[in-house]
Amino acid sequence: MASKESVLSAAKQLVNFINKSPSPYHAVDEVKKTLLKDGFVELKERDSWLNLIKPLKKYFVIRNQSAIIAFAVGGKFIPGNGFSIVGAHTDSPCPKVKPISKKTKNGFLMVGVECYGGGTWHTWFDRDLTVGGRVLVKNEGKIDHRLVHIQRPIMRIPNIAIHLQRDMNEKFSPNKETHLLPVLATAVQMELQGNSQSASTNVSESSSCEQGNTEFTNQSEKHHSVLVKLLCEQLKVKPEQLLDFDLCVADTHLAVIGGALEEFIFAPRLDNLLNAFCACEALVASCKGDSLKTEPNIRMISLFDNEEVGSTTAQGAQSTLQELIMRRLSAGGSQTAFEESIPKSYMLSADQAHAVHPNYSDKHETCHQPAFHKGIVMKINANQRYATTAITLSILREIAKIANVPLQDFVVRNDSPCGSTIGPIMSAKLGIQTIDVGGPQLSMHSIREMSCTSSVKQSIDLFQMFFQKFPEVSQLLNF
């Protein structure tokens, strides 16, 4: 067992990563900073990589600023050799600010939002909320990509009083279109402060899109001027410079280490920033020392966006992003070098798993109840909703023994639906042997989720050993 100090150290680093990542764009930026600090070099998809990729060198590629693939080239790598891959995703369910968000109801300035992914939406009520994401800004004739994170509570979705809805404890099913609108300010206070008009136009706050105002001089008019002002102040730009943005609504309550014995993580976006963080840390750690010198494979992490909505995007797992990068790295060998690499490759699809819930333990199959602190969960499904096979299980069990990381088996009940991951997508798309794994957690898809501190270090240790030992362990297969 790892020491409490090492477990807490890894968990605190994850907490710091989550608190800096209210959106996929921030998560990718944090990963990028870690990689640059460790000597990775950024490549552009649009550029030629001819004669650029060298053994023992480390690189990364970003698409849409929300997906990132990083890789370290083994000292013994030649085109046609395999890829050792850990895949995860950067997105989480949340409300997102609509393209035209300006709404006014009963004297309140409201923000129109669209539900992204399968969130547990009732948990977003009565929380202190803010926004974080990206803004495209016109700057001296160029279009800049800027990150923004308002780090104070500016919005709230208030619950209705139980006196006005007596059955709310028995049946609380808010309408996502009409009940999930955050309150931003009051019209009267805006007027008292002299902000009843937009900073850049003469459009009144009361002239929301609901009242027929669908013609806008610039993009900032589509949103309440108080929200635009907050964004502009942080970005140090004028409202007319705003071209567009993608803003996630986020809780302002920070991720923390919790529990009487400091054994839990209470945090937003554990699904799946935990595995995105651990994959990055493991790749960086695996390149320390001399193991990369004798490595025949390329060690790779693929952190995709849009898993929570099916992955069918240019930056999602269903795109050609990973395949195209693998093909480019296989160039220079035989005409079939890429195809030769596939059976030599292996992918860990890392996404959080359902720990057994003490108040709802009957929701788990009796022999498969993953618990906190008992290891990384291996997800298995006979209907192939998970990509795990007996072969990929056997390989990982051998690696886990070397890493001294415990593993747990998980299948869903026959009368229960099964979640989805990028595992089946990638294994079917590329033919790579794949296994679905993840740390155990509770409150999945809630605004605040719960995991155990030990799964962070266990994940890093398992992924790191996988990078360093997969080629060796794969040689044990005698068929």
Percentage of residues assigned to helices: 25-40%
H and E string: HHEEEEEEEEEHHEEEHEHHEEEHEHEEEH
The radius of gyration is: 24 Å
Described by strand count, sense and barrel closure, the largest sheet is: 9 strands, mixed
Features:
nine-stranded mixed sheet; Aminopeptidase i, Domain 2; 2 domains; single chain; alpha/beta; Aminopeptidase; 479 residues; 10 helices; five-stranded mixed sheet
Question: Could you explain the architecture of this structure?
Answer:
With 479 residues, the protein is an alpha/beta fold. The protein has two domains: 4-92 and 268-474, 3-Layer(aba) Sandwich (Aminopeptidase); 94-251, Aminopeptidase i, Domain 2 (Roll). The chain is 25% helix and 25% strand. Strands 1-2-3-13-4-14-18-16-17 form a nine-stranded mixed β-sheet, sandwiched between helices. A five-stranded mixed β-sheet has the order 11-12-20-19-15. Strand 11 and strand 12 (264-267) form a beta hairpin.
